[in-house]
Amino acid sequence: MVRRREVLIGPDWRLRFTVELDRGRPRSWAVQLEWYDPEEERWVWVARYDTSGGTPHRDRNRIAAHEPVDLPQDPGKAARVAETDLARRAEEYIEA
C-alpha cells in the first residue's frame, strides 16, 4: 500500500510525502520539496530525500543526484529528519 500527502509550507512551496508500506511497516519513503513555477504553471521538484536504490539519500534538481546523507536507521525518524531539513532550508534549496 502506498500513502501520499502534501503539506503547504509557504505561498508557493509544499512538501510531498510518499510512504510504501509492507504489512504495515515502511518499505520505502520519500519527502520532496516542490515549488510552484508560475511561468510553467506547474509544481517543480527542488530537493528530495528518498530510499530509491535501497539507501537513504538526498537529490537536488539540476545540482546533485544521490548525495549521501547521515540519517537514522528507523524509517519514521529518517523521514522526520528529512522533512525538518527541507522545511527549514526550503528557500535555500529553491534559490540554488
Any overview of this molecule?
With 96 residues, the chain is an alpha+beta fold. The protein has one domain. The chain has two helices and six strands, in the order E-E-E-E-E-E-H-H. It has a six-stranded antiparallel β-sheet. The longest helix has 14 residues, at 75-88. It is globular. The N and C termini lie far apart (34 Å). The mean pLDDT is 91.
Number of domains: 1
Mean pLDDT metric: 91
Distance between the termini: 34 Å
Tally of DSSP β-strands: 6
- Detail the poorly predicted runs: none
Q: What is the overall shape?
A: globular
Strand content: over 45%
Sheet having the most strands: 6 strands, antiparallel
**Rg on CA atoms, Å:** 13 Å
Domain DUF7718: 10-95
InterPro entries: DUF7718
Protein name: DUF7718 domain-containing protein
Task: Give a topology summary.
Blueprint: E1 2-10, E2 13-22, E3 25-37, E4 42-50, E5 57-60, E6 64-68, H1 75-88, H2 90-95
Antiparallel strand pairs: 1-2, 2-3, 3-4, 4-5, 5-6
Summed up, what is this model?
With 96 residues, the chain is of the alpha+beta class. It has helices at residues 75-88, 90-95; strands spanning 2-10, 13-22, 25-37, 42-50, 57-60, 64-68.
Task: Please tag this protein with its features.
96 residues, alpha+beta, 21% helix, globular, DUF7718
